[in-house]
Design goal:
The complex is a heterotetramer, with two copies of chain A and two copies of chain B.
Chain A: H1 3-6, H2 9-16, E1 29-34, E2 41-48, E3 54-62, H3 65-78, H4 83-97, H5 107-110, H6 123-145
Antiparallel strand pairs in A: 1-2, 2-3
Helix pairs in contact in A: 2-3, 3-6, 4-6
Chain B: H1 10-15, E1 31-32, H2 43-56, H3 66-86, E2 94-97, H4 100-110, E3 118-122, H5 131-140, E4 143-149, E5 155-156, H6 160-163, E6 168-174, H7 186-195, E7 199-203, E8 222-226, E9 237-241, H8 243-248, E10 259-262, E11 267-269, H9 283-299, H10 301-320, E12 325-328, E13 339-344, H11 349-357, E14 361-362, E15 364-366, H12 371-376, E16 382-386, H13 393-409
Helix pairs in contact in B: 2-9, 3-9, 4-5, 10-13, 11-13
Classes of the chains: A alpha+beta, B alpha/beta.
Bound molecules: pyridoxal-5'-phosphate (2 copies).
Chain lengths: 148, 413, 413, 148
């Protein structure tokens, strides 16, 4: 089993020093997602700017290295970007994770996220990697419906 | 409907079913004509289960080790197969239950009903599609009404305007009758039911083994069937439902993996299908069901149905040749399923079944869990012969011979 | 309680379980320490199921041909075995369900409760013995209260006088905790509960695999356990209940063979156990469960428990030698079950399980369907190792080595 | 399969010409029993005399040859007998039926009932043979509780 493919240095770095962690104001939507199987949880807030860019994504997450690192990488990738681009990145990450290791990640789109390519070969960990991404999408869609 | 044609490789198919080599008391080979009760199992189904138990056994989802991943993949793979088999829009709409009865109870227990609402069933339902609705109506104050049965065994649609009128919230009916063999016009009834905003629950227990079951083509809202009648094992059934309906229903059984989170004060629910799968699911049974679906899909449901029509035609001809036999249900093989119930004048069904059994011929005698339909025809019980993809014309001939022997034994006719 | 002693013929026993010969990725032999999640199956159980499917498969009761008689005898024979296993006063008190969760839901759904009534559970219950009671209380207006957990992982009995006081109608608790390993004083609680007229529902899911379960000795009213944890297949569970209580409960699922008679207007119910077994039951699963009970009874529950104590003592010693490990639950192997949950400082349970898995060691990580008990100890999840009659001390050593390897990998401690 | 052991001439005779069939007055109790599996049914009445003997047992039964013949034989055996004796006969018949063919019937007690010895070897038919006997016991117990 290729553990090092799963636990890439980039992932362990993000795990030890997660970016954008903690819950912050302002925000238009807050969601709480759980992985019912293992109990991993994330509370996540999204703040959208008036110009349609992602102003902030803040979160409080409890979970394994993969889920924590994934939240950290995700915030790096979406904060400051136009929401539509952020959602494209979400789609690319989802495709990578569901690809059973057959999808070649695009570094231009996913940046540090390509480190998760190895996770796609561990079906039981895919949910961990997706937890915060799913929460972001959910919150972003809700935030769009709210007056900024 | 379809024209009959025996399966061309019938002898090869029979070799897939180890039990068909059994001989019974007196050295008689097994003539199994009780497939509407439960089907026999091909070797591939048994082997898939054995392989799972010997090499991949683990609990699913919750287990994140290699065996757990293998077991989860096998289990969830079976869900994919069922979704394809039913042409379901989404795999998450496929819920594994313990049998068709639990699937029907799940809907009847959770579907919101109240005083003034009406549930419509039919007089030809299996008890598993009657009793849950009686209990639901008793609990909720809703009323129960039903389509009767015409003399020829088809559904009596004369009251359809009255039955399918505002106030009716649920129309629950069998696709194919397990007693009469009748194939009901389910797509037409679904169309009419939807006009008045009712949901349609189809009991496909007898349809799934024999006909292509396409939930979208018939525009059903819920569909139930059972593993052991489609060459799969006991201990597993399926409820398919539309996503938006399943999402709206409250949970049925609580526990295990159906939760999102649990505290002592309050719990929340997992998304479908898990919301309805409390506790350890039937894992090795799903593996067996998946193999069964592969098997019958490989033979082809159209080919299986054509075989059923051919065998049923031969059976109906044979029965017509025995004086004193009265068939209950439609007489045209091209427009009915393969379960054929009949009376033999002067001999009680138990005694018919006993005499046939003494010659290795297995049929069912009794009310076949369809007491109201029996009552409709003024009988308390009947003898039922039912075929499947492994049934041969020679087995039907053995049955007909057996009936003549029975008449002789009891000195009737 | 019992002193530990390894099973003398452990190597022979291991040969009974084909899966123990599996090697996993990287060539590691399987070290299966997830038996509290589901147990592995001995060859005799698999063979009994195969023999049934290949030679005796038929529906039961309703089928009166030779195969039907064989199948019925096999199924009802399994009921006799379960009755003996539980020391049940009557075989009719043994109801086959799909798993322990359904068994617990059956009681929670049908037991009469109303406003003012109280249900008492414990904070260490599996979700399957929490959620059904939450739903029952929500439906009926009864209130839910619970025993807490003491710091050492035993049940906190300090509120017993308040909890077991008039108004309490049901006391539902686990015999052995699947997370903490705690063995609860169920006979004493039953005695106290009966003084105030409450019924006692025991979740024996983790007890039945390891301890002699005598429903009369502990004076229980209902007892649930699940087939797949006692070396039997998935798809089958058991509810045992006192005859007079079962007779008094209304039916749970409707359909199939649970009826006495059905008319469109009204139905009446069969006597127990059939009243609670709607639809085709788990036939081949009962056959497998019967073989499983024969198997573990032949080894002997006392001997199995002594083995568990010995293995658990070795496991607790090993864990104590790993710095950064904190065990959740009682620390004396002689007074606890074999499921041992623990934390490893600085490494999340998922990552622990992943590292162990890479060396072929299967443990469980997560909340083990016991979120409230995890919350009680201030953790969201834990790693759990659990043994069974085939577990060897060498496997425990592999786990301990694996934990040191894990710490190295993640550079902690 | 030894069909002739099941369908003894005596059984077929009783089946064709059942004794004491039909429902009659007077009676102190009436019961309705069904065999849920196959739907066989019997409605049965018991009349007890003041001296504790069984005054009459009348019945309306629908079912197979075995269940019909069994009802006929049962009435022959219990009518006119002291109830306690009738219940002993019931016990003897029950023992025979549940004996899986291993119990030797006592002709002095069971008379024509010994013809059912063969039925005990057919587990699926035992319920048929017992239906009316169980109904009789049920009704007799109820009748005892009633003022005659
Ligand atoms: C204590 C306890 N109760 C109940 C259950 C539920 O058993 P099942 O999932 O077979 O319904 C389990 C196991 O999962 C358990 O450990
Ligand atoms: C039409 C029909 N519905 C429902 C059922 C119930 O299936 P199960 O007994 O597997 O729940 C059956 C078969 O017994 C059936 O034939």
């Amino acid at each position: 089993m290729d553990l090092d493919a799963l636990y890439q240095e980039i992932i362990l770095d993000h795990y030890r020093n997660p970016h954008h962690a903690g819950l912050r104001d302002p925000f238009e939507s807050e969601v709480h997602h759980v992985n019912p199987t293992c109990g991993d949880e994330v509370t996540l807030r999204v703040h959208l700017n008036e110009d349609g860019t992602v102003g902030d994504v803040s979160y409080d997450a409890e979970g394994c290295s993969i889920s924590q690192a994934s939240a950290s990488v995700m915030t790096d990738l979406v904060i400051g970007r136009p929401l539509s681009e952020a959602l494209d990145t979400h789609a690319a990450f989802l495709e990578l994770m569901q690809g059973k290791g057959q999808v070649e990640p695009d570094e231009d789109v996913l940046e540090d996220g390509i480190a998760f390519a190895g996770v796609a070969k561990f079906p039981a960990r895919v949910k961990c990697a997706l937890l915060s991404w799913m929460a972001f999408k959910d919150a972003a869609v809700q935030a769009q419906g709210e007056p900024a | 409907m379809s024209a009959g044609a025996l399966l061309p490789d019938l002898e090869v198919i029979r070799k897939d079913f180890p039990i068909l080599e059994r001989t019974l008391e007196g050295g008689f080979p097994l003539v199994y004509l009780d497939s509407a009760n439960t089907s026999q199992k091909p070797q591939v189904v048994i082997d898939a289960m054995v392989d799972h138990l010997e090499r991949h056994n683990a609990n699913i989802a919750r287990a994140m080790h290699q065996l757990g991943a293998e077991s989860t993949e096998a289990f969830e793979g079976a869900r994919d197969k069922v979704a394809t088999f039913l042409n379901a829009p989404s795999r998450d709409e496929v819920i594994f239950t313990k049998n068709a009865s639990e699937a029907l109870n799940l809907v009847a227990r959770t579907f919101p009903l109240g005083p003034g609402d009406r549930v419509v069933i039919t007089e030809m339902e299996h008890h598993s599609n009657i009793v849950p609705w009686q209990l639901a109506c008793e609990r909720s104050g809703a009323s129960l009404d039903w389509f009767g049965i015409a003399e020829d065994g088809t559904l009596d649609l004369s009251r359809i305007d009255e039955l399918l009128s505002p106030g009716t919230k649920v129309v629950a009916l069998t696709w194919v009758s397990n007693m009469l063999g009748t194939i009901n016009p389910v797509a037409e009834i679904a169309r009419r039911a939807h006009e008045i905003g009712a949901v349609v629950v189809l009991d496909a227990s007898q349809a799934a083994p024999h006909l292509p079951v396409d939930v979208q083509a018939v525009d059903a809202d819920f569909v139930a069937f059972t593993g052991h009648k489609v060459t799969g094992p006991t201990g597993i059934g399926v409820l398919w439902g539309r996503t938006e309906l399943l999402n709206a229903l409250p949970p049925f059984l609580g526990g295990g993996e159906m939760i999102a989170t649990v505290s002592m004060e309050k719990s929340t629910w997992a998304p479908i299908p898990h919301k309805f799968e409390a506790g350890t699911p039937p894992i090795v049974e799903a593996v067996g069901l998946g193999a069964a679906i592969d098997y019958i899909s490989h033979v082809g449901l159209d080919a299986i149905h054509a075989h059923e029509v051919a065998i049923t035609a031969h059976l109906l001809d044979g029965l017509a040749s025995v004086s004193g036999v009265r068939v209950l249900g439609p007489l045209d093989a091209a427009h009915r399923g393969g379960a054929v119930s009949f009376e033999l004048a002067g001999v009680h069904p138990h005694d018919v079944a006993q005499l046939l059994d003494s010659r290795g011929i297995a049929v069912r005698a009794g009310h076949h869990c369809a007491k109201p339909a029996h009552k409709r025809f003024g009988v308390q019980s009947s003898t039922r012969a039912s075929s499947y993809l492994y049934t041969t014309p020679a087995e039907i001939d053995a049955l007909i011979d057996g009936l003549e022997y029975t008449k002789n034994y009891f000195k009737v006719g």
